[in-house]
Amino acid sequence: MKEEEPITITTVEQQKRHKHRFNIYVNGEYSFAVHEDIVVKYRLLKDATFTKSYIDNVVYEEERHSAYRAALRYIGRSMRSEKEVATKLSSKGYEEDIITDVLTKLTDQKFINDNEYAIALAKQRMRMNKKGPLWIKRELTQKGISKSEIQAALDQFDNSIEYEQALTLASKRWEIDKGEELAKFRKIMNLLQRRGYTSEVTRKVMGVLKNTDDVFFEE
């Protein structure tokens, strides 16, 4: 096997606009830029000599480090699912193997936890946004949450909670909306369906508003 020719770093230059990044020059010419963490970890100092394979590994680690920091910024603004983080990194042009490594690291560090994410999001949607279980299930599915994790998130609510939320929402709208009773009835029923409440709960709530247990509508 042919021995690799040594590569010598001739200049390590701090960037003016990004103080935590450094430009690396090889044989007097610009070669690549890295974060200061990579400079320290791989001892990228002036006059240091490395093989091409070593430098290639450094460049790869810089890319992974960059993706990791991008992911941290993204989840720092709001709790995210694993799929959302993967989609975000992909949109920034990171390779699949880099994304996989970053997701594994974030999961190991407990920065990503789809089970906890699903439970928290479901609680917010039900309590604050007055969404029903069908809406929550669709949203969690779109965010890449597994069926078992979705079920666990929905299991935190019993039927009475869904009913109370739906009844509160419907009652407020009943008081606010104007017009004929039948038109109001249909409008509020459609609202509950759009919000993702189940047919059983919707029928029960509308029955209360009309003072009857005999409420029927098409699925």
Characterise the protein shown here.
With 219 residues, the protein is of the alpha+beta class. It has 10 helices and 4 strands; from the N terminus they run E-E-E-H-E-H-H-H-H-H-H-H-H-H. Helix 2 (52-77) crosses helix 4 and helix 5 runs antiparallel to helix 6. Helices cover 59% and strands 11% of the residues. The chain has helices spanning 36-41, 52-77, 82-91, 96-108, 114-127, 133-142, 147-154, 159-176, 181-194, 199-209, and strands spanning 7-14, 21-26, 29-35, 49-50.
Using brief descriptors, characterize the structure shown:
alpha+beta; 59% helix; disordered C terminus; 219 residues; four-stranded antiparallel beta sheet; 4 strands; single chain
Can I get a quick summary?
About 60% of the residues lie in helices and about 10% in strands. It is α+β, with helices and mostly antiparallel strands and about 220 residues long.
- Residues in helices, as a percent range: 55-70%
Q: Assign an overall shape.
A: rod-shaped
**Largest pleated sheet:** 4 strands, antiparallel
Total beta-strand segments: 4
Q: Determine the mean pLDDT.
A: 90
Strand content: 5-15%
Radius of gyration: 28 Å
Number of helices: 10
Order of helices and strands: EEEHEHHHHHHHHH
Q: Spans of 5+ residues with little confidence (pLDDT < 50)? A: 212-219
Structural class: alpha+beta
Report the span from N to C terminus.
71 Å
Strand order across the largest sheet: 3-2-1-4
